[in-house]
Amino acid sequence: MNSLGSPRPRKDAAGWQQDVKSIGWWAEHAAIIGLIGLSIVFTSLSPVFLTAGNIQSILVAASILIVLTVGQSFVILSDGIDLSVAATMTLGVIAFGMAYAQGAGLLVSMLAAIAASSVIGILNGVLVAKGRITDFIVTLGTLSVASGLALVLSDGKPISITSIELINFSTHGVLIFGNPFIVAAAVAIIAHVVLFRTRFGTHLFATGGSKEAAQATGISTARIKIAVYTISGVLAGVAAILLVARVGASEPAANTTFLLNSVAAVVLGGVSLTGGRGSIFGPIVGALLLTVLTNGLTLMNVSQFYQPLAVGVVVILAALLSRFQK
User: Fold this and answer.
1) Considering the domain boundaries, does residue 131 fall inside one?
2) Is residue 220 part of a domain?
3) Residues spanned by the domain of 130
4) Which of 12, 79, 92, 187 has the greatest number of beta carbons closer than 10 A?
5) Which pLDDT band holds residue 196 (cuts at 50, 70, 90)?
6) Which are the contacts of 239, defined by CB distance < 8 A and separation ≥ 6?
7) Of 36, 65, 74, 27, nearest to 242 (Cα)?
8) What are the transmembrane regions (predicted)?
9) Is residue 245 situated within a structural domain?
10) Is the pTM above the cut of 0.85?
11) Percent of the chain whose predicted confidence (pLDDT) is above 90
């Protein structure tokens, strides 16, 4: 449907050919094209790649990144960025471990992880919206705060977590879809509904597109900013739970790879870094692409030292292509 409510005219073969020849079309579909292309390459190079077991491993491995990427997408759509997302997740991991070590049950430990991560998210939002400090500086500062708290609270030592329930959760699922991926998919679906079926989503896109114009229409852009950073914090807590379930311990060391990959997945997914344009599906495909890339290189016995290099090249190419997006 167009803006007047009438059906959009169908494109003929010539119209589709013209689109495919346009670099803008390739930029718009870079993530899905890259994912399909990598899958074809790795399938031809490794007989293991397309097996059910490996596909399940890819989906489970991508689950944490997908959840973090959804949170990062909310922030970037509002014309911001969250550099603290990985450190916030680490703080949530430690909060989980400390609560569990004190005899709290799984539910209380999960709530502790989400609560600790949410505090950092709320702090980010308040400082950006009310303190009017650049989001880059704020989240860079809270990155250090969250990382430091995780090390201080844990004394720099991992906390072992032995739970049959967590083991069963991380190792079971439905067909090739492991439970962690099902959780990530549920998060993505809810995020899509919030963005495209609610007033909040409309206000979010308006804030990211033009803060001044949004304010002129009566939208509280400060509330939107606080909300998106809070959402990012909450989802970092959810990712912390998935990480603990996967590793079986609360590790205090921050994993900056998750930060870099969450931003990379958003860029690959076609979300505008200046806000106001994007989707949830694109960044999820971007997260899967990065996971497939790492998985394929591992199957080919490529040294892990080369993997960040490959990811970096892919991200730079995606950033270049994004300049041609419509």
Assistant:
1) yes
2) yes
3) 59-254
4) 92
5) very high
6) 64, 67, 68, 89, 92, 258
7) 65
8) 30-49, 55-76, 83-101, 107-129, 136-154, 174-196, 226-247, 253-273, 280-299, 305-324
9) yes
10) yes
11) 35
